[in-house]
């Protein structure tokens, strides 16, 4: 039952209508010209064979020795007749019907049994796994066409027995595939959660694990149907499948073999049909694989490029500053189906050498996308940089060559991301990873790089650095892992460190240490830091200046002390009110009501208007500029909380 539900869910997904602006998988399938061609041809063939009983064609088994081996196009026999005078068109249609049915049934049997074995083996593990898999190995130890022949020899020739033989030899294919995926899935957290909620093994297997492997089962099926049809035809060709007078494509080919020179059409007709059938099934199968493959689910079939696509109409002129980083009018969009998500809608920033700028905002306000856009790290598709200029080292990085970008990344500009466990490679020791980071940018020997890496590990205060040098990421605590990432970021003395919520995954005490370390080391080396966070408490301790982001735009920017003391934008005020202050229990903490607007449907005027208690009529029209607001400050608000100082 659960299995049927899951099959239903996958099929619904394949044919689902346009959801959330994303093209439906069916639309994606048809967008692929080869699959579309295969699908069209397959549809024609399937419709023809389904309609065969109602078509005005003669009975396929009626012999007519007087009219044997008629050429195609002869009266009443469009494709001619065979050596017994039977109509070839009729036999081909009925034969295709049989071949498709047998191929499909064999695939279904192999998929069901094979997937069940794979699911149970992968989920149970231990002895069950060993027993089942050794059984599968046993089947795989024989060349499979030989094994199929042996099975038919034991069962006796016949179409049904050929079907069983083909199904059996294909079971290992499914079992091994599904076991591998189940093995990985059944150790994941959502399975643990189901176990904790008291679900039975069967429930976990069929409701939690099966839906996740189902796309793989469907993909494997769609890519093997063609094979199975060929294999059945092979057995029939050898006389072990369909028995006379029943027609299937393989036996027709076998009968025509002896007449290849005198009456080639008798073998060419079924041969072409096998070719067309298997080809279009495989084309559709490949298309289905591309659409359903869990790894390609973003809806975009192309792998992301090495740099975000830039599609600017105009390029802002070069700024005349000595800033490490200068961003003007940066706009980054995500084009998903027919929707355009304006994740970053015109951001202007400057970072002086050695300065620390905090970028603050709610989750989803566009902070990470801004940071990634600087070095064109946003994946394309769906990301596109639609406008603006990013100046680093005096050059416009949005126009840089891939090689120049590569030198910059991890060299002059380093990133520290949120979750160190996902950024560190699980199979290399942390020492090796730092060495790699150093040698990617500096032409020094391994020994020298190792010495530098060790110094770095000591610098980020990893206890007993020498011993930790050859530790794997999973052997370190979260705090230590993030220290390793900071060491990697510092490895090439960058001018700019972009730290994207580097401590969100750590607990509060470790967080403070790591932040202090990052700030101290960047001060010591004179690196500027773009520090992304959603926590105003952290900003006040760490940053010289702060920029507040809302719905993809900066709404307030200025020296952190001034902004914290007297926020100008109502949103900044609310964000500051959300931060608890130790020892001041009387202070009222308020959550901000409502949600930020979706960036694919931004309202006119101020994006914060709907949640603002100072909103007025004029807030809802036009574009509200980021106006100067006292020394070094700017605010994007018509009715700020304070008068301009
Ligand atoms: P945050 O400020 O929390 O770091 P992000 O910069 O990650 O926010 O995201 C900004 C906006 O961009 C969000 O509205 C998010 O939904 C959107 N976004 C991010 N990545 C994608 C993507 N691959 N496809 C579509 N939208 C995306
Ligand atoms: Mg983020």
UniProtKB/TrEMBL annotation:
GO terms for molecular function: ATP binding; ATP hydrolysis activity. It is found in: Cell inner membrane; Cell membrane. InterPro entries: AAA+_ATPase, ABC_Ni/Peptide_Import, ABC_transporter-like_ATP-bd, ABC_transporter-like_CS, MetI-like, MetI-like_sf, Oligopep_ABC_C, P-loop_NTPase. It comes from the Bacteria. Residues 325-576 form the ABC transporter domain. Keywords: ATP-binding, Cell membrane, Membrane, Nucleotide-binding, Transmembrane, Transmembrane helix, Transport. Its main location: membrane. The chain crosses the membrane at residues 26-51, 98-124, 144-169, 259-285. It is a peripheral membrane protein; Multi-pass membrane protein. The keyword Manganese does not apply. The keyword Amino-acid biosynthesis does not apply. Residues 96-285 form the ABC transmembrane type-1 domain. Gene3D superfamilies: MetI-like (1.10.3720.10), P-loop containing nucleotide triphosphate hydrolases (3.40.50.300). GO terms for biological process: peptide transport; transmembrane transport. GO terms for cellular component: plasma membrane. Belongs to the binding-protein-dependent transport system permease family. This is Peptide/nickel transport system permease protein. It comes from Thalassobaculum litoreum DSM 18839.
